Amino acid sequence: MDWREILKTNVTHAGELEDIMHLNGEHEQEVERILERFPMSVPRYYLSLIDWNNPKDPIRRMCIPSLEENDMTGKFDTSGEAENTRLPGLQHKYGETALILSTHRCAMYCRHCFRKRLVGISEEETADNFEKAADYIREHKEISNVLISGGDALLNSNEALEHFLDVLSSMEQLDFLRIGTRTPVTFPFRITLDPELVELLKRYDRKKKIYVVTQFNHSAEITEESEKAVRMLLDAGISVKNQTVLLRGVNDDPDVLGGLLKGLTAIGVIPYYIFQCRPVSGVGTHFQVPILKGAEIVERAKQMQNGFGKGFKYVMSHRTGKIEILGAWEDGRMLFKYHQAKYDADRGRIFAVKLGENQTWLPDGLCGAGEV
Ligand code: SF4
């Protein structure tokens, strides 16, 4: 069966959840109101991973709208995406990396998404002219890698992907390409039912190294089907890396997070980053974990890993750069280090901040030498 046909069976309306969630009329209307702002689309496969007897089921939390999404505290662009946009759909924040927003579509609209402002809603921020984006990259020789993202990069057709890969793989200045997709987790059929896609990636990987970057957040997402998708990518020579988001009520427990990291390493997916959830409107207040607590959870989860599983960094994508959260210093202050910096003066800079117990983010003015 064609993966596009399967996606058409996604659950997109509150009414479809009525039976399984036992929504009453009033609750259903409230959920519908949330969906006017933030759409829902859940593949039947992902829905089947939910234990409906558990109202706190972590999979449910990531895909089913919650009334907490009405809290608009925070902002929609927390890491300066607008100010780093050079052309529609092309961001250039760190010298060596270009980011292409190739589509606004995803197989599933994650409730915790930091691009909630656009996924499933608007094409305004996606690349409308890939040739111009390619010209920009060619003119900026400092760019040595490109991340094709979105939305979900694998929601593009094979033809569109081939065009991107064809153009980018012929640029000598690039060392490698990354494809950002959550399909191995939320909709593995995009890979398992499309050998043509895997062949395509394999072919271009021979020209330019391709890394697939995905996002497993809980070990319940590691299933026979997702493992099969990962295996097909690995067999084709594609490296698969994982970026987990630390999410309250999903993986904010050392055993849960540690179990996930172990499970990933066991199927050949290398944990790469653990992201501090961003203070995004409709997301932050119910998904963020305080940094002090997060650092403790991550450290304990790390201690459960072997060397491979310990290679990841716990980071926040801040407006001033990707900041690694190192851990608490003996005087109680938290140590941070710029892993990637927007401003040259911040490159590799280590700094300490006395955090509040419930503090979940660093204010723009508190860090960033470029600000001073
Ligand atoms: S797949 Fe990625 S981009 Fe799409 S909604 Fe989920 S987190 Fe956001």
TrEMBL record:
Residues 92-313 form the Radical SAM core domain. [4Fe-4S] cluster binds at C106, C110, C113. CDD domains: Radical_SAM. Its cofactor is pyridoxal 5'-phosphate. The keyword 4Fe-4S applies. It comes from the Bacteria. Keywords: 4Fe-4S, Iron, Iron-sulfur, Metal-binding, Pyridoxal phosphate, S-adenosyl-L-methionine. InterPro entries: Aldolase_TIM, Lys_aminomutase/Glu_NH3_mut, rSAM, rSAM_sf. GO terms for molecular function: 4 iron, 4 sulfur cluster binding; catalytic activity; metal ion binding. It holds the Pfam family Radical_SAM. This is KamA family radical SAM protein. It comes from Eisenbergiella massiliensis. The lineage of its organism: Bacteria, Bacillati, Bacillota, Clostridia, Lachnospirales.
